[in-house]
Amino acid sequence: MTGGSSLTPEERRAELAEALAAVRARIAAACAAAGRDEGEITLIAVTKTFPASDVRLLAGLGLADVGENRDQEARPKAAECAGLPLTWHFVGRLQTNKARAVAGYADVVHSVDRPRLVTALSDAAVRAGRTLRCLVQVSLDDDPAEGRGGAAPGAVPEVAAAIAAAAGLELGGVMAVAPLGADPLPAFTRLAGVAEEMRRNHPGARIVSAGMSGDLEQAIACGATHLRVGTALLGGRRAIVR
Ligand SMILES: *Cc1c(COP(=O)(O)O)cnc(C)c1O
């Protein structure tokens, strides 16, 4: 796929429908292999770098969950798509000074990894009169210098307790990105252990957000409930300048 910029809306719709069917087939096969019910899985389309028109097309195809990783891109896109029956997931690294903006449109924040961010999101959610479901992002990288955000597993209980106690926030569970270039299975197995431990103190925190285009099968095998899929649904992203 090309990203669709040269396609007519009808062609792009057909391309997305085909990709969605293929991803759903992968999910079905992985659930069958793991003895899990497909109904336990929420597919989030990560639409970063793709236009609001793609979000509309996906919504028309029955997709209910959308993910974005940068506030400056997500905010106008969510505004353009207001009125569609979508749950917005913020999955990227989040600076405290963006908490207020993100609390305006996000329903679920997957990348909560420090108490200061919990405080900022709580203040923002209360101010906006909204409830944000928050996941604790767990770092599965042993080398923090390689890290893509996330709390060390040992720091997860503290962040989880802060979310659970915060006004305007609801503790949803855990999220992780598998370390680059390594077998994702041990990482996702470790995440499952962190999730299980969290549920001992917070039984309602049942979300395990893991698995992307390249590793959704392994994530499903390890108990993921939410998959964050970009490339396999929307096509290759062009490099973006940060
Ligand atoms: C971009 C992104 C994804 C989707 O990755 P693909 O490999 O394109 O499926 C998932 N999670 C996060 C946090 C992302 O930033």
Automatic annotation (TrEMBL):
Positions bearing N6-(pyridoxal phosphate)lysine: K48
Membrane spanning residue stretches: none
Named cofactor requirement(s): pyridoxal 5'-phosphate
GO terms, molecular function: pyridoxal phosphate binding
Stretches assigned to the Alanine racemase N-terminal domain: 20-237
PROSITE patterns named in the record: UPF0001 (PS01211)
Keyword entries, A-Z: Pyridoxal phosphate
Family listed: Belongs to the pyridoxal phosphate-binding protein YggS/PROSC family.
Function in brief: Pyridoxal 5'-phosphate (PLP)-binding protein, which is involved in PLP homeostasis.
Name of the protein this chain belongs to: Pyridoxal phosphate homeostasis protein
